[in-house]
Amino acid sequence: MADIDTIERVKEIEVDKYKYGFESDIESDLAPKGLSEDVIRFISDKKGEPEWMLEWRLDAYRRWRTMSEPTWAKVNYPKVDFDDLYYYSAPKSFKDGPQSLEDVDPELLATYEKLGISLKEQEVLAGVRRSDEPSKLESNGLDIPKGAVAVDAVFDSVSVVTTFKKELAKAGVIFCPISEALRDHPDLVKKYLGSVVPVSDNFYATLNSAVFSDGSFVYIPPGVRCPMELSTYFRINEKNTGQFERTLIIADKGSYVSYLEGCTAPMRDENQLHAAVVELVLLEDAEIKYSTVQNWYPGDAEGKGGIYNFVTKRADCRGDNSSVSWTQVETGSAVTWKYPSCILRGDNSSGEFYSIAVSNGYQQVDSGTKMIHLGKNTSSRIISKGISAGHSDNTYRGIVSAHRKATGARNFTQCDSLLIGDKCSAHTVPYIEAKTPTAQFEHEATTSKISDEQMFYCQARGINEEEAVALIVNGFARDVIQKLPMEFMAETQRLIGISLEGSVG
Amino acid sequence: MNRTPAEQTWDEFDTLPSGFADIRKTAADNFKSSGLPTRRVEEFKWTDLRRLIDQPYPPIIGKLHGDIDALIAVSPFAGIAKNRLVFINGLFDQARSKMPDDSNVTITTLSGKPDMDFSLKADDPLDNLNIAYASDGALIRISGKVKDPIELVYISSTKEPATVTTRNIIELDEGAEATILETCTGGKSAYVSNNATEIRLAKGARLDRVRLLDDGPLGIQLSNLIADLGENSKLADFTFIIGGRTVRNQGFATFTGQHAAVNISGAYMLKGKQHADTTLVIDHAVPSCESRELFKCVMDDTSRGVFQAKVIVARDAQKSDGQQTANALLLSDTAEFDAKPELEIYADDVLCGHGATSGDLDNNHLFYLMSRGIPESRARAMLIAAFASSSFEEISNEAVREKFNQIADGWLERQMEV
User: Cys-Cys link to B266, which of A54, A236, A479, B239 (CB 3.0-4.6 A)?
Assistant: First the structure.
């Protein structure tokens, strides 16, 4: 029954908007329901986009109308009625949400506490305020527990953002919302947008191209090593990028950037369907490290109402000697459909994919990667750790292919699945296509469960059952956890433990 | 979708032998609605039969053409098996066959027993096609321990392009044991050979089956294995694919009793424009069974090898043990290998894994041999043969292993006429 407990903890995020009186004033900035060319014109107009951008969106929309939803993934969910969605609404007013942390479900706060999240951050996560608004903590005199204070004192998002922007500007790095980039750097956006994930790449990417709300734009000039790790979490207004996020990162010759997306805490979100597109462009000798932690609402105890996360992420290693690394920790969402890919076009380029996908309850994860070797002496490495518990389905689906000209291509793939309980399932669907003899491909996969010996060993040393599971699973996923940036590493270990609460016993 | 010329000739054909009319009709209707699978059908992603079967192949029955005895001589099992069943162009040839003299073996041919109890795999287009047009085949029933291997030879030798269809049932009673050796070969003209075998193993039965697929240079081999494994039974199936223009080798094994074991292994040695595809589905429907697949694939010239295997472990099939391995050796810049070793697991106490590798010959190995005075061409031949023959370890009959080693060793010199 502890299973339910975990779900309860995150339940409120989606449901509380009703509990706290969701009687919104009629918003004036709401596009009509459904999707039509007019709605797209409305979105583009609201954002003050240039004419070519509108055309680009309309083109995507017309193509999308001719496409049908993919059905090949091993996921099962009620069909989304695309004509019953709002594709644009002005930033939601926070009046609807909880007014202070006191109004937030204590269970949710307990989860935050376990994750070691500061109170001011908790406000943002629970939807009490926006990240750019001042904290309400000082005014309401909420008792701040000791120990959290030190973190709080230095952690004021607004000031962080300010210092942050100054330093980035000094290095010449552009980091802003994509709508702003369209205004200030239209040439860069025009040149690269849609060049990695083409407009009609797949059903969801095409939909995203037509209606994307906002997202991050990053440009790292030649030879620049980005002085800090960039994170969506710090960007002003990040909270309201909506369901169709679009990210474009360009690493020019010899540059380096590490980008963090998402956060470990459960996120309050009103949108059920998420169809984001992330494009990474790497020129010669560039390097991008992209880390994601996704912990959206997974649905209730019966698996109803969770987020559908249909994401298209792709990196294009255009320049020689470029390298890209995707690291992902997927613990949230009811349905995940996500395949961060690497096109290894430049000679000697390399791609890496490290993934931990934890599914519990009725979650369904169909995730993996594509490594497309086109250039000479390209190399790739895939380490995927799938952990399924409860009634969940966890699928690794990936492709490794070497083109005829990709001489000397090298791949190593390891997909391990861990099953906890006898109601869950784990699947592995790897595709291997070798068109050149000099490509060396190795693939291995295993499926196993936590052995009784391992549990006995831990429990004999006084570690309780749940802690033992968390410990063993963290050990199982260690190869991937170690690839995470420092900020995420400790949190992820705790997150895995929390995600699996109630999966034994 | 429009009917292809090949599909049309099948649709029009109606002079089949009598018997099992109902199941034939169901199968023919199923095939009419599905048609030949294209690469849009996931299981045929890398083997687009609609494109590969690109001309009419009207079904034929019997009709001898060419030097049949020379084709029978292709069989490497002649000295190993004392008896032999020969099927020529889909019809049992009594004169060229020698029936086994063992009271534990009962053989009936389809033409002699038109009420054979076939089970149709209705979701598989090739099985539908097989049942719809099967003209002959053998029902082999083994009731005790049979020592002498039984040989089956299938010859497709036609003047014009044609489809030849056979279907067998091999049934082993409780505790029975047998070895079946099969050779599929054919003449120089284009043909489609559709050959299916149903294997039913009762409690504790053990069957060893070894096949050499050495079809003619324009031959298309569609081969299907549908196995049902009872408690404690064991099936060891080995397929050595060396001939044919296109080979689609399918295997479906289902465990129906606990503690059973299946081993489906094989080797490809392909050159020219050959295309060979092995697609396996192992269904661990009950607990405590073991499955093994090992394939060694050698591809030269512009040939293409495909290996797809799916291990399904059902919800309650605890203690299942499944391992799949596919290793590919690519010898030319234009050869290709595609693999999809798939796991679909619904039980937690299982041990399942797979491995797949692809690469070329190791220069260090070549150097080692050459530095000992072995000419390069010979050294290459040795290494290639060694790679393929490592799979022959799965075959328990030593004489068969020896024959296969010889074939592998001489493969590099073998000429492909395509």
Answer: B239
Quick check: B340 contacting A, CB < 8 Å?
yes
Backbone angles phi, psi at B345, to 5 degrees: -120, 125
Q: A476 — contact with chain B (CB < 8 Å)?
A: no
Which residues pair with residue B129 across a beta bridge? none
Cβ-based contacts of B343 with chain A (< 8 Å)? 417, 426-428, 445, 447
What are the start-end ranges of the H helices in B180-235? none
Which pairs with CB-CB distance under 8 Å and at least 24 residues apart come from B65-72?
A: B65/B89, B65/B157, B65/B158, B65/B159, B65/B187, B65/B189, B66/B157, B66/B187, B66/B188, B68/B96, B68/B155, B68/B157, B69/B96, B71/B155, B71/B157, B71/B185, B71/B186, B71/B187, B72/B96, B72/B153, B72/B155
Interface of A with B in 380-399 (CB under 8 A): none
pLDDT one-digit tens code per residue, A436-495: 999 999 888 888 888 889 999 999 999 998 889 889 999 999 888 888 877 678 778 888
Amino acid at B108: T
Give how far A469 is from chain B: nearest CA, Å: 15
A&B contacts, CB < 8 Å = 111
Give the whole-angstrom CA distance, residue A256 versus residue A288: 6
Q: Are A450 and B350 in contact (CB under 8 A)?
A: no
Closest C-alpha to A6, from A307, A294, A300? A300
Chain A residues touching residue B360 (CB < 8 angstroms) = 437-438
Quote the tokens at residue B325.
């391995």
- CA nearest to A410 within chain B: B359
- Report d(CA A169, CA A153) in Å as an integer: 25
- What interface predicted TM-score (ipTM) does this complex get? 0.87
Residue B396 CB coordination number (10 Å) = 14
Residue of B112, B107, B131 whose CA lies nearest to B120: B131
- How is B28-87 classified by DSSP, letter by letter? HHHHHHH-S--TTSGGGTT--HHHHS-S---B--S---S-HHHHHTT-TTTTT-SEEEEE
Among the partner-chain residues B318, B346, B359, the one whose CB lies closest to the CB of A440 is B359
DSSP B175-195: T-EEEEEEEEEE-SS-EEEEE
Cα dihedral angle (A91, A93, A96, A101), rounded to 10 degrees? Answer: 100
Q: Give the separation between CA B178 and CA B200, rounded to whole angstroms.
A: 12
- The pLDDT tens digits for A248-292 are 999 999 999 999 887 655 555 555 788 899 999 999 999 999 998
